[in-house]
Amino acid sequence: MTNPISDIEKADVILVTGSNTTETHPVISSAIKRAAKFGGKGLIVIDPREITLKQYATLKMAPRPGGDIAWINGMIHVILKEGLQAKEYILDRTEGFDAMAEAVAPFTPEYVEKITGIPGNTLVEAARLYAGAEKGSILYCMGITQHINGTNAVKSLANLAMVCGNLGIEGGGVNPLRGQNNVQGACDMGGLPDVYPGYRKVHDESHAQTMEKAWGVTGLSRTPGITATDMVDAAIDGTLKALYVIGENPLVSEADLNHTEKGFHNLEFLVVQDIFMTETAQAANVVLPALCFAEKEGTFTNTERRVQRVRKAVDGPEGVPADWEIVCDLARRMGVPMEFKSAEAIFTELAAVTPAFSGLSYKRIEKEGIPWPCPTADHPGTPRLHVGSFAKGKGTFFPIEWTPPAEVTDAEYPLALTTGRVLYHYHTGTMTRKSKGLNERSPECFVEMAGSDAKNLGLSDGTLATVTSRRGNIKARVKVSRRMHKGTVFIPFHFAEAAANRLTNAKLDPDSKIPEFKVCAVRIGSAPEARG
């Protein structure tokens, strides 16, 4: 997040898109609801479903899945046409405005309505509400990013924020809500194929030399590695022979699971390190047991970039080492001496070689976490990014064109499927589905659809249906709901026995390499009759 969570309630208007916040980030949703209900703040909620947060909204919109860039460009179009932009901010603090303005020129309310289904007058009202606020906060999640144009959608949101002068101010910002605990920390630590810790690119010679000096080695590769999705293709074509999976369950979470399973079955060697015997672990040649968060020392970094201490609260199973100990032991056996004595020692090395973390230490975060960047030992941390100026100097506007989803509906597959989570389960259900109480609340997979769609298909609430895409099929219980709009259906992805990702499309965003989880074309029929 560019801004701290506390800034949400300091905003005059909050725009939430691609986030079913009450079910996926319930703590943050409480701040949003307080701001709207008791603080009198404007709330714009954009989601294909009638999610609970819309009950608190000043204004709501329901675009067809895959239409995000169109409505964002449309809002900017209206703002520029009506002269509502922050002219001085744009002039002083940004670059590339003219090219961006030219790109949004075709996105009239009428054109956006054809693409998204959002009524033109509603789009105009949303643009005026956001641009008319002194401080506007944008919150988004994977409903924005998990598309083939997800990177461009995020850039479009940045365009919208800069047009209104809402970056680098209290109560403003473009704020991604991270999808898993400590995913922010994992990325910060270099858990991506193209960066060292602190997001320093591996192909940058100066960064590579810094790490070589710190580690006492030479010849570190300047070539980025491959992403998880690309690993599946590499396993299928035989160029990837072995895979080491830590704390992930890709045989439920990856898009186009039939394709993923083919890749995993073609591996010569699979190692899984996890706290439970997941579906992926069951396919492994070797399973390495690990400790959960409450059984080990370390740090987590939350969605607002705040680095926080995690302390051991209980003893883990006898003989089970911490994750870092397993990795160090494995490295030693492969000829690389990793002689760390503690998690703190690793963190100390991180601070020594990573400018954004140079001022951090266990002592400094003993009682309260600190948000990075924190470059020196006397620096208080950076709760808000881009205050006064952008990290790169001037903020860059990008001219973004809308592109349709990789797969659109047609006569054979007439419904648009979007996927997500429910309040009672987390990700692939590795932990939550072992809880009796949570399983009682949410016992099985369902396909949520509008009553008109169910009626047209001869289906009723509670009946078993087969949902089929071009990649596979699953059986799920029909849930007729007023939350859904005609033509769009929703399936949660927590249930391995009816995995929504057997249906989803593995087509990738060319920049982020994220699959298009959030929209694909399906057909639905009663379970005994539907085609597989």
Structure notes:
Helix content is 30%, strand content 18%. Strand 12 and strand 13 form a beta hairpin. The radius of gyration is 24 Å and the shape is globular. By secondary structure, the protein is an alpha/beta fold. The protein has 4 domains: 173 residues, Dimethylsulfoxide Reductase, domain 2 (3-Layer(aba) Sandwich); 130 residues, Rossmann fold (3-Layer(aba) Sandwich), CATH 3.40.50.740; 62 residues, no CATH class; 112 residues, Barwin-like endoglucanases (Beta Barrel), CATH 2.40.40.20. It contains 19 helices and 23 strands. Helix 3 runs antiparallel to helix 6, helix 6 packs across helix 7 and helix 12 packs across helix 14. The strands form 7 sheets. It has a 6-stranded mixed sheet with strand order 17-19-18-23-16-20. The chain starts with 12 loop residues before the first strand and ends in a 6-residue tail after the last strand.
List keywords for this structure.
532 residues; six-stranded mixed β-sheet; Rossmann fold; five-stranded parallel β-sheet
What is the element layout, followed by pairings?
Elements: E1 13-17, H1 21-24, H2 26-37, E2 42-46, E3 59-61, H3 68-81, H4 87-93, E4 94-95, H5 97-104, H6 109-116, H7 120-131, E5 136-140, H8 142-145, H9 150-163, E6 174-176, H10 183-188, E7 195-196, E8 200-201, H11 205-215, H12 228-237, E9 242-246, H13 250-253, H14 257-265, E10 269-274, H15 279-282, E11 286-289, E12 298-301, E13 306-310, H16 323-333, H17 343-353, E14 370-371, E15 395-396, E16 415-420, H18 436-441, E17 446-449, H19 451-456, E18 464-468, E19 473-480, E20 488-492, E21 505-508, E22 515-516, E23 520-526
Parallel strand pairs: 1-2, 1-5, 2-3, 4-15, 5-6, 9-10, 10-11, 16-20, 17-19
Antiparallel strand pairs: 7-8, 12-13, 13-14, 16-23, 18-19, 18-23, 21-22
Helix pairs in contact: 3-6, 3-7, 3-9, 6-7, 12-14
